[in-house]
Design goal:
The protein is of the alpha/beta class. It has 2 domains: 35 residues; 235 residues, Aminopeptidase (3-Layer(aba) Sandwich). Helix content is 36%, strand content 14%. It has 6 helices and 8 strands. The strands form 2 sheets. A 6-stranded mixed β-sheet has the order 4-1-5-8-6-7, with helices on both faces. The chain has a two-stranded antiparallel ribbon with strand order 2-3. Helix 4 links the parallel strand 6 and strand 7. Helix 2 crosses helix 6 and helix 4 packs antiparallel against helix 6. It starts with a helix and ends with a helix. The chain binds zinc ion. The site of zinc ion (ZN) has 7 residues, from loops. Zinc ion binds next to loops.
Amino acid sequence: MDWRQGRQQDIARGAIVLAVAVAVALLIVGARLGSQRFTSPPPPSTPVPTATPVSTPTATPEPATPTPRPQPPTPTPAPIAVTGVDDLYAQDGRAIVCIDPGHGGEDLGNVLVEDGRIVLQEKDFVLEHSLALAARLRERDFEVVLTRDSDTEVNPSNEDVNGDGEVAPEGGPARTEQLDDLQARVNICNLASADLLVSVHYNGAENEFLQGYEVWFNGDRPFSGRSETFATLMHEALEDAYAGAGYDANDRGIGLEDHVVTGPERPGELIPSEMPGAVIEGLFLSNADDAAFIQSDQAEDSLVGAYEEAIMTYFDVYPG
Ligand SMILES: [Zn+2]
C-alpha cells in the first residue's frame, strides 16, 4: 500500500474508533441520565409517605412515550363560574393563589365516626380553614380564588365538565368520584391564571391508628421544581405549627403522587392545571389524637398560619 492508501485506512480506522468512542460515551451519559431520572432517591429530609391518600382517583397515567395513534378530540369543558375574584386579577400584577378546599356538598371527604355516627367531616374543616386562609392572604394583598366557598360540590349540576361523555349517577356522593368535579376545580384555577394551586385536605383511613400530616406534589410537570419548593415549605410550616401548638404530630413526609388537580394531562379525560401546586393532608380525622387537635382552639390558627407562612415564603422565592 502506498502512504496515501495507508493514511486513508488510518483515517478510516480512526473514524471508526472515534465513532465507537462517541457511541460508548453517549451510552454512558444516557445510562447515567436514565438512572438519575429513574433511581434518584427523594431528598433526605423528605421521607415518602406510606399511605395512599384515599381521595386520589386511580386512573392510569399515560405512558411517557405513547405509540402514535389517532388523537381524541379535545374536550370542551362546560363553563364554570369563578367565585371570589374580580375581573382584574390577571392584570394587576399581584400573585394569584387558587385555594381548593377538597370535597363539599354530598361528598363529605374523610370522616370521624363515633358510635356509628359521623361526628367530623373533612369537607367542613377544609372549607373553614380555606376561607380563613383566603381572608389572611387578601389582607396581605394576594389575589385569591377559591374552587368553592360554600358547602357544595364544585360541579353541582353534574355537567360533563371534562368532556369524556360520562357523568355520575344522580343522588349520591359518586358525583365527585367522576373526574368532572376535579376538572371543574382545575378549570377554576386555570381560568384565574393562578400562580399557585393549594389543595386543602384532611386525611382518613380505616386504620384508626394512622395519623399525621403529609404533603404531595407531582414530579412530572414542567413546573415540578416549583411544586417541590412549595411542598417543602408547606411541610416545614406544618411541622413548625404543630410544634408551636404543642402537638406532637406524626410527620409522614413529602410524597410524589399523581393527584388529579396537580397531575399531568390525561388525554380525553383531563385538561391539567397550569400552575405549580401541592395537595396537603393536614392530619387524620379518623385518628383520635389528630381529631382532638383539629377540634382544639388553636388548630385553625396553627393550620391556617402554616399555609399562610408557606405561601408567603414561596412567593418570596418566586414572585408572582
Ligand atoms: Zn380530602
